Amino acid sequence: MKDNKKVVLNVESLSISFGGLKAVSDFDIKIYKNEVYGLIGPNGAGKTTIFNLLTGVYRPDSGEILLDGENIVGKDCVQINKIGIARTFQNIRLFGKLSVLDNVKVAMHESYKYNILEGIFRLPNYYKKEKDMDEEAIKLLKVFGIDDLADVISTNLPYGKQRKLEIARALATKPKLLLLDEPAAGMNENETKELMNTILKVRDEFDMTILLIEHDMKLIKGICERITVLNFGSVLASGNLDDVLNNEEVIKAYLGA
Prior knowledge:
Layout: E1 7-18, E2 21-32, E3 36-40, H1 47-54, E4 62-67, E5 70-71, H2 77-83, E6 85-87, H3 100-106, H4 116-120, H5 124-143, H6 159-171, E7 177-181, H7 189-205, E8 209-213, H8 217-223, E9 226-231, E10 234-240, H9 241-245, H10 248-255
Parallel strand pairs: 3-8, 3-9, 6-7, 7-8
Antiparallel strand pairs: 1-2, 1-4, 4-5, 9-10
């Protein structure tokens, strides 16, 4: 990966402690436009903590997080989402009582606005905005092959389709960087293969940059060119996929001798 390619995310010396525990220590990462980048490591290595730092759930003790050159440290979750980072979660967090369509529309509130009076009295602008949101949401659902399920209550979807819906909802915020936290968790082999194709499709169709946490090494090997391995909150190895996976320290700490 050449440095003349556009850098979307540049993290330098990111650290955070909880009490006396150093959860993340001097974490660095640089991710380029349209890259699918993998973040791996054993349970408790600090991977989700890094996602929480990137999205404003936690504020780092030190370090910089630059998104398209803008330092987002100190901004809250809503501000960071508006600037351009969206995420999914290891445990799916859909609005369970809402339809598939409405789950996506909820994420469009910044793009389509009408005031309280327009909503209460159903004025023309209300109907126009709702129609526009419906059309855009359906287009998004078509990318994932679930547009025919638009009226289904989200908790009634099969597990794999719930994962797709969560990614679709994240994309509805129009991010620059998409964070996927163990997207293949709980999936069978066929669902994982379909997910791999979906992630690559998202990258290509939405001109998206993706950082993902994953334990399924088949998925990592199938879609990532570069990865970072964490161990006890520190970077154990980082770089080209094959080089990192053949690193002796990585094999000992994570993959097993």
